[in-house]
Design a protein that fits this description.
This protein is 33% helix and 35% strand. The chain has one domain: Gcn5-related N-acetyltransferase (GNAT) (Aminopeptidase), CATH 3.40.630. The protein has 150 residues and is α+β, with helices and mostly antiparallel strands. The two termini are 27 Å apart. Strand 4, helix 4 and strand 5 form a beta-alpha-beta unit. The longest helix is centred in the middle third of the chain and has 15 residues. It has a seven-stranded mixed beta sheet. Bound molecules: coenzyme A. Coenzyme A binds next to helix 1, strand 4, helix 4 and helix 5.
Length: 150
């Protein structure tokens, strides 16, 4: 049974490796993944200061999401699901948590700077396109920005 719980600060290193492994599902090469490492890193401090939630299936980590809220908008910083579990509802559950968390912090929209391969998932979840923005990891790469009204 899939269960959600807050991440623990001491899980930062393990969750960082998990984010990298889960993002690699789109077939990126080693150089691309190395360039993403900084942006996908979770530390004990970042887990303490932002909102990070993990999904577990029978005690094993199956997904992770991070939200940062500021005023009336919130940013979905991370959303990653175990490749063996794709398309089984874990992403939707974690996104529902992210929406509720952002709403509770007073946000009226959740902003997502998405991997291009994940953008269609967010559109299915009700997000609308809001242009392209520079990737935080790869120079000269533009990625879709989406806005999910809360
Ligand atoms: C994007 C991601 C989080 C989606 O998670 P998931 O658990 O597979 O999604 P769900 O099973 O909850 O899917 C919910 C719905 O979206 C659809 N969907 C999921 N991924 C999709 C995709 N890539 N393209 C189109 N539709 C998609 C599902 O079919 C399902 O449709 P339904 O409403 O008809 O049931 C997951 O693919 C992932 O972790 N990818 C690798 C890391 C990544 O790129 N994360 C996003 C960073 S911005």
């Amino acid at each position: 049974m899939l269960a959600l719980r807050p991440a623990r600060p001491e899980e930062g290193a393990e969750l960082t490796e998990l984010c990298l492994r889960f993002k690699a599902v789109w077939g990126y090469d080693d150089a691309f993944m190395a360039a993403c490492r900084k942006e996908l890193t979770l530390t004990p401090a970042s887990i303490r200061t932002s909102q990070v939630q993990v999904a577990e299936l029978d005690g094993r980590l199956a997904g992770v999401a991070e939200v940062k809220s500021a005023g009336d908008t919130a940013q979905l910083e991370k959303l990653f699901v175990e490749p063996a579990m794709l398309r089984s509802g874990t992403g939707r559950k974690l996104l529902d948590w992210a929406k509720a968390t952002a709403r509770a912090a007073g946000a009226t929209a959740l902003v997502i700077e998405a991997d291009p391969d994940a953008a269609e998932f967010y559109r299915r979840m009700g997000a609308v396109d809001d242009g392209l923005v520079p990737s935080g990891s790869i120079p000269n790469r533009l990625i879709p920005r989406l806005n999910l009204p809360l």
